[in-house]
């Protein structure tokens, strides 16, 4: 995944042509000394760490904390698959590093190595 707050949804044709369908910049990168090489860890926010597509929706685990903070993600953002319109913000009770969605789209399972367990959320 990306270390910034940028997410994009692409379409690839049978001939290999890539088209951007939508994109969002939740937090643009901030660099030290005006360079394009060194992130400012005090000001930048971590981005997306896991993304799943289920039916008409894109579920994206978003961190949003600064690099120096070190906390794991507690937010899943849901976007409409074709338009990219934000649909929902799911706040998790426990931090997580990865997630899965049940085939019926009604349950999210999260995991975090720190707690060494799976947490179930009905959505």
Provide a descriptive summary of the structure in words.
The structure is a single chain. This protein has no helices and nine strands. By secondary structure, it is an all-beta fold. The protein has a single domain (5-93), classed as Thrombin, subunit H (Beta Barrel), CATH 2.40.10. It starts with a strand and ends with a strand.
What is the topological layout?
Elements: E1 5-12, E2 18-27, E3 48-54, E4 57-62, E5 73-80, E6 86-96, E7 98-101, E8 107-112, E9 117-122
Outline type: flat
Secondary structure: helix percent: under 10%
- The fold-level CATH name is Thrombin, subunit H
Would you list the SSEs in sequence order as H and E? EEEEEEEEE
Low-confidence stretches: none
CATH architecture: Beta Barrel
Mean pLDDT across every amino acid position: 87
What is the β-strand count? 9
Q: How many structural domains are formed by the residues?
A: 1
Given the helix and strand composition, which structural class is it? mainly beta
| Spatial strand order of the main sheet | 3-4-5-6
Largest sheet: 4 strands, antiparallel
What's the CATH first level? Mainly Beta
Question: How much β-strand is present in the residues?
Answer: over 45%
First CA to last CA: what distance? 24 Å
């Amino acid at each position: 995944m990306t270390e910034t707050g940028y997410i994009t949804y692409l379409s690839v044709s049978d001939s290999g042509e890539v088209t951007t369908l939508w994109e969002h910049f939740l937090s643009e990168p901030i660099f030290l000394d005006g360079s394009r090489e060194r992130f400012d860890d005090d000001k930048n926010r971590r981005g997306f760490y896991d993304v799943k597509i289920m039916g008409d929706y894109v579920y994206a685990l978003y961190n949003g904390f600064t690099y120096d903070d070190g906390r794991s993600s507690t937010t899943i953002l849901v976007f409409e698959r074709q338009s990219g319109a934000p649909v929902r913000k799911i706040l998790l009770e426990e931090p997580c590093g990865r997630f899965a969605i049940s085939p019926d789209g009604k349950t999210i399972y999260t995991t975090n190595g720190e707690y060494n367990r799976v947490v179930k959320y009905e959505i």
